[in-house]
Write a sequence for this structure.
């Protein structure tokens, strides 16, 4: 049926931004998406992606926002204004925005067993081959995968170690991962070290 006058009046009084977020405009018509949907924006270099797309969405979001950037402009343009709405946390391991880091993520936090370390190692190794296992060397790649997984496991089970330790150990041919694994009763894994 046709909505009654009260419903029409209520609909006109509701701000659409309470129900959905703006994704753009076609002529005079504003386009919205629900908060459950996501958008993927493709724009060329220097086409105003940050200030025309990302900043307005971050500033108008009715709840929590997670944003990433490889430049400091997104942080500079939004952090102070979002701080007026609630806490703002910075995860800036590359020191891109030059702000004190206030949030950390321990990539080794879920690693308890070799299976977990292999899952994390897959993330790094798949990135190097573009996910195409046919491009991998039949001898060196499995050895590299094993070495990385065991080194990740060693860092995960040793208190105070991080992925930085994994990088240092591998790049310096350190025996430390082998010693950690042996100290934790994982001698079988250290045979190839």
């Amino acid at each position: 049926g046709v909505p009654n006058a009260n419903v029409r009046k209520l609909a006109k009084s509701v701000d659409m931004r309470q129900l959905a977020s703006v994704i753009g405009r076609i002529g005079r018509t504003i386009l919205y998406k629900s908060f459950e949907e996501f958008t993927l924006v493709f724009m060329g270099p220097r086409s105003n992606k940050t200030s025309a797309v990302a900043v307005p969405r971050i500033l108008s979001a009715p709840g929590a926002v997670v944003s990433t950037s490889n430049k400091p402009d997104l942080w500079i343009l939004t952090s102070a204004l979002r701080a007026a709405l609630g806490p703002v946390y910075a995860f800036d391991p590359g020191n891109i925005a030059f702000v004190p880091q206030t949030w950390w993520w321990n990539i080794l936090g879920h690693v308890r067993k070799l299976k977990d370390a292999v899952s994390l190692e897959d993330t790094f190794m798949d990135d190097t081959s573009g996910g195409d296992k046919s491009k991998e060397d039949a001898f060196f790649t499995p050895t590299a995968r094993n070495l990385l997984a065991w080194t990740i496991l060693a860092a995960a089970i040793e208190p105070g170690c991080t992925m930085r330790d994994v990088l240092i150990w591998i790049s310096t041919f350190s025996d430390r991962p082998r010693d950690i694994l042996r100290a934790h009763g994982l001698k079988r894994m250290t045979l190839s070290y």
